[in-house]
Structures are given as structure tokens and as C-alpha cells.
């Protein structure tokens, strides 16, 4: 969406977006740098450099693009949630922080309750001036993960667990119909035995994104959280979850009141999960998949995996 001539017929709306965008480019909150936070600062600078070299700045955000940004007005926090990057636990923490004492222990909140829409407010629910005010003054943070580890984690969680029937029906049946030659009728109907290779074929098929946006579990962080337009104060990493989460809680001024739950049940990978799954993917598809997730690698300083055979 751009403020081109035709679009500007409604000048008023255009002005609003102009204001929104100009505010997005303001200076981020200055952090006082404890030694442990210096690496966080470095990450943010690297992100800004990567944005400068790899994106064109003509993009404009609308409130609709801010659905993943969770707001805590009490502590002036904005958290962009990325599925498969400890987001259940972050949502639990934010529920504790915004609950006025109703919850005190994040782990006492059932995982499914943390994901109920409406339990937490998102930035997209606010008016444009309210959005601007929050983006300008709140502590904004995001947690990211090595893109292919995240992708494999999403695949395992959504397609290899028998209880995830909603995903099997919604995506599995379609993937099998399109990408499996000669499927069994049962597989076609249930969609519960999608292979990683079939999942990869689905992701890189141009029809997939033409028909609808990726599901948030495999959508790129770049598209979910707009890290080149929104200046996140902290870029936390799943690989260093505990210290990074602690740094956020410290900056939010709630370090003493609660602990980030790091031992919750989740699809843990050991940092080599992706290598095992990619062994069975041809160089042709590896290359296509890498191009698809390239921005997430670049923006968050993840190096090209050594197991890839893309040359
Ligand atoms: C980026 O990644 C490299 C290699 O892993 C690392 O040495 C460097 O410290 C990272 N830079 C930042 C700013 O995190």
C-alpha cells in the first residue's frame, strides 16, 4: 500500500498514515547499557543496518498490520509475538502483568488460555493516535529464533502430533492433495501424515501465498512484526532465552515480581533438528526455502546453515 495519487483522494486518511510512519522512524528508547545488555544493543544496531541495506522504505503500515503486537498499558510494554519462539510463556507473563493481581504465577495459566483472543490487547485495536503514542513511548520487544529451527519446530508440532487435527484438516489435506502423487483416500481425508518434504513443497509453491497469507506458525518474522518499520528496543533470541527474558523484565521494571518460565513444556529442539530434517530435502528446494526465509536470516544475524546444499 502506498500513498500514491489515487490513494490520496482521501487526504485525511493519508495524513494519518503519514503521521504514523513518521513516528515509527523516531529515535528508539535509549537503554542504559549493563554489560549483559550490550549484546542486545549490538543486535538492534545490526538489525537497523540490515534493514537499510535490504529493504526499500516505501512501505506503510496500517492498524491491521499490528495484530501481533501485544500491549501492556500498565507497564508500557509492546511485545510482538512470534509462534514457536516461547510465545506462550510471554503471553502468560503479559497476562500476569496486565491482570491486576488475578494471576500471579505465569505457569498457573493454561496454555490454551494464553492464546484466547481477547485475553490480551493488541495494538491493532487502538486508534491511530493511540497507536502512535504507544509506539513512541513504550518499551518494544520481540523474540526471534534461527528460522529453520523455528520452521522445523512448527512442522513437528502441527503435522506430527496426532492431536492437532485442526491443522491436519485445514492444511494437511490441501498439502497432500497438491503435493503427493497418488495419495491414499484416508490420507486425503485426514491430512495427518504430511512429510517435511511435502510441507516444504507447499511453502515454496507460488500458489500458496497467492491464495492466502502463510499461517502465523510458518510466516516470517519480517512479515509478522515489521522489524524494519517498528524500532524494537530489544531483540531477544530463543537461543539465549533466559538472560534475554530477564533483561526485558528488568527493563520493564518487574524483575522482582515474576520470573520468566523457562521450563514449560514445549517442542524443544537441540539446535540440530533442522539439519536432520533438511538431509532429505533436495538442493533445489533447499535453495527456494532459503530464499523464502532469507530476510529473517539477514535481519537477525543468523548465518546460512552449513548443512544447506544450495550451490
Ligand atoms: C552476529 O553473528 C556473528 C556470528 O555468529 C557474531 O560473532 C556476532 O557477534 C553477531 N553480531 C551481533 C551484533 O549479535
Largest sheet: 5 strands, mixed
Name the structural class: alpha/beta
Gap between N and C termini, in Å? 35 Å
The amount of beta strand, in percent, is 5-15%
Backbone CA Rg:
20 Å
Relative helix content: 40-55%
- Beta-strand segment tally: 5
Subcellular location: Golgi apparatus membrane
Main location: Golgi
Transmembrane segments: 7-25
Membrane topology: Single-pass type II membrane protein
Keywords:
binds 2-acetamido-2-deoxy-beta-D-glucopyranose; transmembrane helix; 2 domains; 311 residues; 5-stranded mixed β-sheet; 14 helices; alpha/beta; membrane; 48% helix
Q: How would you describe this structure to a colleague?
A:
The chain is of the alpha/beta class and 311 residues long. It folds into 2 domains: 16-146 and 225-252, no CATH class; 149-217 and 271-299, no CATH class. Helices cover 48% and strands 6% of the residues. The chain is built from 14 helices and 5 strands. It has helices at residues 11-24, 35-54, 87-98, 111-114, 128-137, 147-159, 165-179, 185-190, 196-204, 206-211, 221-225, 241-251, 273-278, 283-299, and strands spanning 69-72, 77-80, 121-122, 139-144, 234-237. Strands 3-1-2-4-5 form a 5-stranded mixed beta sheet. β1 and β2 (77-80) form a beta hairpin. α7 crosses α9 (196-204). It starts with 10 loop residues before the first helix and ends in a 12-residue tail after the last helix. It binds 2-acetamido-2-deoxy-beta-D-glucopyranose. Residues 39, 42-43, 46, 301, 303 line the site of 2-acetamido-2-deoxy-beta-D-glucopyranose (NAG). 2-acetamido-2-deoxy-beta-D-glucopyranose is lined by residues 39, 42-43, 46, 301, 303.
Amino acid at each position: 500500500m502506498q500513498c500514491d495519487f489515487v490513494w490520496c483522494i482521501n487526504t485525511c486518511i493519508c495524513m494519518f498514515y503519514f503521521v504514523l510512519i513518521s513516528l515509527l522512524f523516531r529515535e528508539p528508547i535509549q537503554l542504559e547499557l549493563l554489560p549483559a545488555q550490550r549484546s542486545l544493543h549490538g543486535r538492534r544496531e545490526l538489525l537497523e543496518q540490515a534493514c537499510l541495506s535490504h529493504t526499500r522504505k516505501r512501505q506503510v503500515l496500517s492498524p491491521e498490520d499490528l495484530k501481533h503486537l501485544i500491549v501492556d498499558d500498565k507497564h508500557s510494554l509492546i511485545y510482538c509475538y512470534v509462534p514457536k519462539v516461547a510465545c506462550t510463556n510471554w503471553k502468560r507473563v503479559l497476562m500476569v502483568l496486565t491482570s491486576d493481581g488475578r494471576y500471579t504465577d505465569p505457569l498457573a495459566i493454561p496454555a490454551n488460555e494464553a492464546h484466547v483472543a481477547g485475553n490480551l490487547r493488541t495494538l491493532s485495536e487502538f486508534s491511530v493516535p493511540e497507536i502512535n503514542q504507544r509506539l513512541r513511548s513504550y518499551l518494544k520487544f520481540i523474540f526471534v529464533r534461527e528460522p529453520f529451527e523455528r520452521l522445523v519446530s512448527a512442522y513437528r508440532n502441527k503435522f506430527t502430533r496426532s492431536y492437532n487435527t485442526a491443522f491436519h484438516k485445514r492444511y494437511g489435506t490441501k498439502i497432500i492433495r497438491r503435493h503427493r502423487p497418488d495419495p491414499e483416500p484416508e490420507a486425503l481425508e485426514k491430512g495427518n501424515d504430511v512429510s517435511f518434504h511435502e510441507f516444504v513443497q507447499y511453502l515454496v509453491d507460488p500458489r500458496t501465498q497467492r491464495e492466502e497469507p502463510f499461517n502465523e506458525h510458518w510466516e516470517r518474522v519480517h512479515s509478522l512484526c515489521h522489524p524494519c518499520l517498528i524500532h524494537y528496543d530489544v531483540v531477544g533470541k530463543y537461543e539465549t532465552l533466559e538472560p534475554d527474558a530477564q533483561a526485558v523484565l528488568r527493563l520493564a521494571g518487574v524483575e522482582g515480581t515474576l520470573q520468566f518460565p523457562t521450563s514449560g513444556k514445549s517442542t524443544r529442539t537441540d539446535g540440530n533438528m533442522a539439519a536432520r530434517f533438511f538431509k532429505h530435502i533436495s538442493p533445489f528446494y533447499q535453495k527456494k526455502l532459503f530464499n523464502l526465509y532469507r530476510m529473517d536470516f539477514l535481519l537477525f544475524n543468523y548465518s546460512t546453515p552449513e548443512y544447506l546444499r544450495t550451490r
